[in-house]
Amino acid sequence: MSVLCILTNGFEELEAVGTIALFRRAGIQIDVCAISDTKASGRFELTFSDIKNLDDVDYKSYDALFFPGGPHYQKLEQNEYVMSILKYFMENNKIVAAICAAPTILGRQGYLKDRNYTCFTSMNEDFGGTYVDQYTVSDGNLITGRSAAASIDFAFAFMEKLIGKEKCEEVKASIYY
SS3 of 152, please? Predict the structure, then answer.
């Protein structure tokens, strides 16, 4: 399984780094890509350097798409290329995961209609679906997380969707015991 993580300046470090680290621990390929650059700095000035430029990857070759939250969600949402990638993943029933502020991107694009989801509580709008007050919600190919505090639960829900419960439990055991 391979995951495409798209971010730009202003991403939430805890949500990005926690998920990326757990996926790599599990042996899941996760490529971190910045919009039109090879680096991106988080909202608390942690910088990913020497990462892939989104323009240089074949997004159709990935099994899943991941959007960390943070203030950068507005830049992602305004980027037509990023929205075309999201559309491709949704239309092809590939796995899409978003946490905190990022599920609002999905909602504003109409992808939360008639779906169960969560997001940062104060950012919940009428997206036409059912907001669930939980750390993480899975609905078909869609995994959403509520906040930075939900990062580990979110990463494991996403991981389970990708590689199954048994392998996910092995990774949990490696960090909890």
Answer: helix
Among residues 76, 82, 7, the alpha carbon closest in space to that of 41 is found at 7
Specify which residues 143 forms β-bridges with: 97, 138
The whole-angstrom separation of Cα 144 and Cα 154 is 7
pTM of the model: 0.97
The amino acid occupying position 98 is A
Q: How far apart (Å, rounded) are the C-alpha atoms in residues 174 and 135? A: 22
Residues of the chain with pLDDT under 70: none
> What is the three-class DSSP state of 83?
helix
d(CA 139, CA 157): 11
Neighbours of 173 (CB within 10 A): 9
What residues does 130 pair with on adjacent strands?
Answer: 116
